[in-house]
Design goal:
about 25% strand, 3 helices, alpha+beta, two-stranded antiparallel ribbon
Length: about 70
C-alpha cells in the first residue's frame, strides 16, 4: 500500500504521486487521468478518449430516455 499526503498547490490542493505509481499507470507529467468513484473508494486510470466518448453518449441516453429506461426496469 502506498500513502500520499494532500498538499497545497497554488490556490488548490493536490497529491504528489510517487514515481512507482506513475510507472504503473504508464503516465508522466502532463498526461490526463480519469478519476472514478467506486464502492471501494476512488480509482485512478489513464484517460481513454474512446471510453470517455462512449460514456458521454450513455449518459445522454440515460438522461434523455430516463422514463423509457425506468419502464424497462420494471
Amino acid at each position: 500500500m502506498t500513502t500520499v499526503k494532500v498538499t497545497k498547490i497554488g490556490n488548490s490542493s493536490g497529491i504528489i504521486l510517487p514515481v512507482e505509481i506513475l510507472e504503473k499507470l504508464r503516465v508522466s507529467k502532463g498526461d490526463t487521468l480519469t478519476v472514478t468513484e467506486t464502492p471501494g473508494g476512488i480509482e485512478l486510470r489513464t484517460y481513454d478518449e474512446e471510453f470517455a466518448r462512449q460514456m458521454e453518449i450513455a449518459e445522454r441516453i440515460m438522461r434523455d430516455d430516463r422514463d423509457v429506461l425506468k419502464k424497462l426496469a420494471e
